[in-house]
Amino acid sequence: TMALCLKQVFNKDKTFRPRKKFEPGTQRFELYKKAQASLKSGLDLKAVVQLPPGESINDWIAVHVVDFFNRINLIYGTMSEYCTEKSCPIMSGGLKYEYRWQDDSKYKKPTKLSAPQYMCMLMDWIEMLINNEDIFPTRIGVPFPKQFQQVCTKILTRLFRVFVHVYIHHFDSIINMGAEAHVNTCYKHFYYFIREFSLVDHRELEPLVRMPQGWGS
Predict the structure, then answer these.
(1) What is the pLDDT of residue 164?
(2) Is residue 189 marked as binding?
(3) What is the domain extent for residue 65?
(4) Is residue 135 part of a domain?
(5) Could you list the residue ranges that cross the membrane (predicted)?
(6) In 3D, which of 44, 46, 61 has the Cα closest to residue 151?
């Protein structure tokens, strides 16, 4: 799958995976539009992530998980030529943090992978989950499963690791590409969202606590 993943990465639009879209006319599409509108209005990101009055928290989380997946995909897709088997033989965040891959099929035990392999497994795994109607139901009136927020916590925790790796190992490439403001905004938005709903364990956030911008408080 590695060659296939790399082929997808070098598509002209640079996304790592096809974007997942919300169906127009659905509740979630309306919520997505609402979230995007407040994001574009230049409101404080801490306010943007708050649950709008009268909306369902699971719908709000679902919309953001899919949107963050799309956007972090794009960020990693643009970075991927700098993140190779040679440059990043271990999926890590500096010397102190190493991330091993585990899933319920091929890798039953936490396994050391290179960063590009880890990213490939991660994006495949998230794509499979968000397209699974039993976990992310899209039909009106179909309830979310009981473990929905737990699944989202796992997805968001692993997506956070993409930021850790990109910031710690590829920050110079981000600056050279002129993508710093875009990546920083996406990170801030993601960070405020996971903090607002306590979706990622604070220990997972430690690698980026001392961000150069002084966020993380």
Answers:
(1) 95
(2) no
(3) 2-10+50-208
(4) yes
(5) none
(6) 61
88 is in an annotated binding site: yes
What pTM, to 2 d.p., does this model score? 0.84
- Cβ contacts of residue 89 below 8 Å, gap of 6+? 114, 115
Backbone torsion region of residue 200, taken as left when φ is above 0, otherwise alpha when ψ lies between -120 and 50, otherwise beta? beta
User: pLDDT tier at 85 (50, 70, 90 boundaries)?
Assistant: very high
36 belongs to a structural domain: no
Per-residue pLDDT reduced to its tens digit, 136-156 = 988 878 899 999 999 999 999
Number of domains in the chain: 1
